[in-house]
Amino acid sequence: MARNSQSLQGETLGQEVKASRRSLPREGGVTLTFHFEDRAITAREGQSVAAALIAAGIRSWRIDESGHHKGALCCIGYCFECRCRIDGEADRRACLTEVQEGMRVERQIGLR
Ligand code: FES
Question: Which terminus in the chain has less CB density within 10 A, N or C?
Fold first, then answer.
């Protein structure tokens, strides 16, 4: 009986983890257009900004205080390397932000 209970808890946890993943776009879903600086980027509904930028061939969307180019590293919201300016707001994590139609993403330089 305890074995069945543990198995059931494991399945429930697994389902929650799957449901919480935000960067997995739906195949054949709605496409959205957003802008990275002056470039129009097409993404799929549900895709993270980081995933959409990488799919478009863009690997750097922040230049740190030492002049190093930064992009996605962990892709799970832990490292903060993917910070960029989204709709005028600095320090938004691209890996945790879902693309929205008309969103404006800009390279963040230093702390701004
Ligand atoms: S890539 Fe690490 S927080 Fe976004």
Answer: N
Go through the chain and tell me how many residues it has. Answer: 112
pLDDT at 19: 38
The per-residue pLDDT for range 30-70, each reduced to its tens digit, is: 999 999 999 999 999 999 999 999 999 999 999 999 999 99
Question: Domain extents for the chain?
Answer: 22-109
**The CATH number of 22-109 is which of 3.30.930.10, 3.10.20.440, 3.20.10.10, 3.40.50.300?**
3.10.20.440
Residues with a CB atom less than 6 Å from ligand 1: 72-75, 77-82, 93, 95
Distance from the CA of 26 to the center of ligand 1, in angstroms?
Answer: 21
Rounded to an integer, what distance in angstroms lies between the CA atom of residue 7 and that of residue 4?
5
Q: Are strands 69-70 and 62-63 parallel, antiparallel or unpaired?
A: antiparallel
Return the ligand 1 atom nearest residue 74 CA: 2
Per DSSP, what are the bridge partners of residue 98?
48
